[in-house]
Design goal:
single chain; 597 residues; alpha/beta; 5-stranded parallel β-sheet; 18 helices; 32 strands; 23% strand; binds flavin-adenine dinucleotide
Length: 597
C-alpha cells in the first residue's frame, strides 16, 4: 500500500504535547503558527516579555518618520486574534528568567508573580538587545534605542518637537533612523566610529550612500566616536572625538545588537560569544530545546566565519523549519546558513547586498576578483533609466559567486534577489549569462544587468578581459611608474578630472593611434580606463589583440571616484591643456550602455 503523504501521516507518538516558545515576534511566532498547522492538538504557549507580539520591528523607523501613520499598523497580530485563529496561548508581559533542563521547566515573571511552566519542547527566539556604548550619562531622557513599539512611539513623540538629533551608529537601523529624522526636517548628525556608513557594504558602495545622506541634509561623521553625553536643560550635548560638540533634542543609540541569551546560557545552553549554538535543525546543546533568530550563531556559507545574522528573513524561516523538526522529525528541511541578504532605502537610493563582502573575504584569506558594472536598470531609451552600481566578488579559479552588492535609484532589489538566488543555487558567474529574465523596456534590458555581470565574469575567467582596480591607485605614483594609464574617454569627460600623467586617446581613435601608445608605454603594461568600464573594455580588447600587455579598470571612473571617496579631488585633476585633436563629442548612451561584455 502506498504510504499516506507526509501531510496526512499520523504524527509520531512521541510528538510533544506542550510546546513552549520564548519570544513572540519574528522567529517565535513563525514557529508557533507552523506548529499549530502541523499539530492541532498540541498545547502551544508563547511567552513574550514585552507588551506586543508579532509586531513589525522592521517598520519601526518608518513609524518614527511618519510614513507609517498609525501605531496599530505595526501590530500585525494580537494575542486575542492568535487565539481565535490558531488556538495559541500567547502571554505578553511574561519574562522567562530561568530554565531547568532536568525538570524541563521555565521560570516566568508575570504581572501576577513568578510561575513555572513545563515543556515537552522549548523554542528560544529571544532576539537581541540594543548594545549600548560605554558612555557617561546615557540615562538622559533624550537618549533612546529603537527596538520595540513603545520605543518607536516615544521617539516619534520627541521627534515631533525636536529640532536636532544625533544618531550614534551607522548600521542599518542607524541609517534608516537618520533618513527618517532628516525627512522630518530635523537637523540630524549621524556619527559612526568606523570609516564608513553601513559596514557590511564595500566602501565604494558605502560612499554613494554617504553622499545621498548628505544630500538629504544628514551630517555624516565617520571615523568619529561619541565621547560623552551631557544632559542639559533645553537640550543635551554630545561630545565627539573630533573635538566638536553637538546639541541634540534627541539621541538615538544604534550601535549594534547583542543576543539576548543571558538566562539561557546560565542554564547550560551552549553559546558562542553570547549567541546560541544550534545544529542544522536549530537544536541546541540541551535535549528538546531549539533556538532560532538573532539569538543564534551561524556559519557564513562562503567564508566559514561564525557570526550571528540579525535579519528578519532567516529568523522567520528558521522558526517555521524548527516547528517542522519538532512536529515531523526526520522530514524537516535543514536550515541553510543565511547569506546575509539585506536591503535598505536611503533617500532616493537603495543599497542591497548578499553573500560575502570584501572585508570578510580578505579576513578569511579567500582570493577573489571583483566585477564592477554600472548598467541601466532598464532600456536606456526608455524614460527614467538609472544606473545600477553593481559589484560581484567571484572566485577567479572557477567563477563561484561569493557575494554581490548594488546601489542605485531603481532595480537594485531585483538584481540582488536574483543574485542571492543564484548563489543559493550554487550557480557560477558564467551561468548568469543564461538566466532568462523578464524583459520589456520599462523593466529591464534585453541583456539584463545580471546577464551582463555573467558576460563580464566569463570574460575575466577565460582571460578575454583582464581587470585592474581603483585600489591600485592608492599609490598613484607606483601605478604611473610601473604602467601607462590610458584614458579613453572624450575630452569633455576628462576635463572633469583625470589621473595625472595618463595618456588620453578617445577609444574611437585608438585603432589609428596604436603607435603612439607603443611609444608611450616604453615596455610598460597599459592600464586602460573610461567612465564605467565599457569603452575601456573595448580598448583593452584592441590593445590585447595588438599584442599589448593591457588591463581595463573595473567599473571605470565611476568606481574610481567612489573608491577614492572624499579624496578623489586630491588625485583627479583636469588636464592642463587638452590638445585640440583630443577634443571629441560626449559619449552617446549607446557607447556607454548598449555595448555588452
Ligand atoms: P525578535 O523578533 O526581536 O523577537 C524577540 C522577542 O523575544 C522580543 O519581543 C523580546 O521581548 C522577547 N524576549 C526576549 N527575551 C525574552 C525572555 N527572556 N522572555 C520572554 N520574552 C523574551 N531585519 C530585516 O531583515 N530587515 C529590516 O528591514 C529590518 N529592520 C529592522 C528595524 C528595526 C528597528 C529593528 C529593531 C530590527 C530590524 N530588523 C530587520 C531585524 C529583525 O527585526 C530581526 O532580525 C528579527 O526580528 C529577529 O527575530 P527574532 O525572533 O530572533 O527576535
Amino acid at each position: 500500500m502506498t504510504p499516506p503523504p507526509e501531510s496526512r501521516a499520523p504524527l509520531p507518538p512521541d510528538t510533544p504535547s506542550r510546546l513552549v516558545i520564548v519570544g513572540g515576534v519574528a522567529g517565535g511566532m513563525s514557529c508557533a503558527a507552523r506548529a499549530r498547522r502541523l499539530n492541532d492538538n498540541a498545547e502551544i504557549i508563547v511567552l513574550e516579555r514585552g507588551e506586543h507580539v508579532s509586531f513589525a520591528n522592521c517598520g519601526l523607523p518608518y513609524y518614527v518618520g511618519g510614513e507609517i501613520e498609525h501605531r496599530e499598523a505595526l501590530l500585525v497580530q494580537t494575542p486575542q486574534r492568535l487565539e481565535e485563529s490558531l488556538n495559541l496561548d500567547v502571554r505578553t508581559h511574561h519574562d522567562v528568567t530561568g530554565l531547568d533542563p532536568e525538570s524541563r521547566t521555565v521560570t516566568v515573571e508575570t504581572p501576577d508573580g513568578t510561575i513555572e511552566i513545563n515543556y515537552d519542547a522549548l523554542v528560544l527566539s529571544p532576539g537581541a538587545t540594543a548594545a549600548t556604548p560605554p558612555l557617561p550619562e546615557l540615562d538622559s531622557p533624550r537618549v533612546h534605542t529603537l527596538r520595540t513599539v513603545p520605543d518607536a512611539v516615544t521617539l516619534r513623540e520627541i521627534a515631533e518637537d525636536a529640532r536636532s538629533a544625533v544618531v550614534l551608529g551607522a548600521g542599518f537601523i542607524g541609517v534608516e533612523t537618520a533618513e527618517v529624522l532628516a525627512h522630518r526636517a530635523i537637523t540630524t548628525t549621524l556619527v559612526e566610529y568606523g570609516p564608513q556608513v553601513l559596514p557590511p557594504l564595500d566602501s565604494e558602495h558605502a560612499w554613494l550612500v554617504s553622499g545621498e545622506l548628505r544630500r538629504l541634509g544628514v551630517d555624516v561623521r565617520t571615523d568619529t566616536a561619541a565621547l560623552r553625553v551631557l544632559a542639559g536643560e533645553g537640550s543635551d550635548t554630545v561630545e565627539l572625538s573630533d573635538g566638536s560638540s553637538l546639541d541634540a533634542d534627541l539621541i538615538v543609540l544604534a550601535t549594534g545588537v547583542r543576543p539576548d541569551t543571558g538566562v539561557f546560557e546560565a542554564a547550560g545552553v551552549a553559546c558562542e560569544r553570547g549567541a546560541i549554538v544550534t545544529d542544522e535543525h536549530g537544536r541546541t546543546s540541551l535535549p528538546q530545546v531549539w533556538a532560532v533568530g538573532d539569538a543564534t550563531i551561524s556559519t557564513d556559507p562562503v567564508t566559514g566565519a561564525r557570526r550571528p545574522v540579525a535579519l528578519a528573513g532567516p529568523a522567520n524561516r528558521a522558526g517555521r523549519q524548527v516547528a517542522d523538526d519538532i512536529m515531523r522529525p526526520g522530514t524537516a528541511r535543514a536550515l541553510p546558513s543565511p547569506a546575509g541578504t539585506a536591503i535598505v532605502r536611503v533617500g532616493a537610493l537603495t543599497a542591497a547586498m548578499t553573500g560575502a563582502n570584501r572585508r570578510a573575504l580578505i579576513d578569511a584569506g579567500i582570493d577573489a576578483r571583483t566585477l564592477h558594472l554600472h548598467p541601466n536598470q532598464h532600456a536606456g531609451y526608455f524614460p527614467g533609466a538609472e544606473q545600477v552600481h553593481l559589484s560581484l566578488h567571484i572566485d577567479p579559479a572557477d567563477g563561484r559567486i561569493f557575494g554581490a552588492q548594488a546601489v542605485g535609484a531603481d532595480g537594485v532589489d531585483k538584481r540582488i534577489d536574483v543574485l542571492a538566488t543564484a548563489i543559493r543555487a550554487g550557480l557560477h558567474v558564467d551561468d548568469l549569462i543564461d538566466l532568462d529574465l523578464a524583459y520589456a523596456p520599462p523593466y529591464g534590458q534585453a541583456k539584463d544587468p545580471v546577464n551582463l555581470a555573467g558576460m563580464l565574469g566569463a570574460n575575466v575567467l577565460d582571460g578575454t578581459v583582464t581587470l585592474w582596480y581603483a585600489d591600485d591607485l592608492v599609490d598613484p605614483d607606483e601605478v604611473r611608474q610601473s604602467s601607462l594609464v590610458l584614458d579613453v574617454r572624450t575630452a569633455d569627460e576628462i576635463a572633469t578630472g583625470m589621473v595625472p600623467g595618463a595618456l588620453h586617446i578617445p577609444h574611437t581613435e585608438l585603432r589609428g593611434r596604436l603607435d603612439e601608445v607603443r611609444d608611450e608605454t616604453a615596455g610598460r603594461p597599459v592600464r586602460v580606463m573610461c567612465a564605467s568600464g565599457v569603452r575601456s573594455a573595448l580598448a583593452h580588447r584592441i590593445l590585447a589583440q595588438a599584442g599589448f600587455d593591457s588591463a581595463t579598470l573595473s567599473g571605470g571612473m565611476l568606481t574610481l571616484r567612489a573608491t577614492l571617496g572624499d579624496k578623489a579631488g586630491e588625485l583627479l585633476q583636469a588636464p592642463a591643456d587638452p590638445t585640440p585633436r583630443n577634443r571629441y563629442t560626449a559619449p552617446s548612451r549607446k557607447d556607454e550602455h548598449h555595448d555588452d561584455h
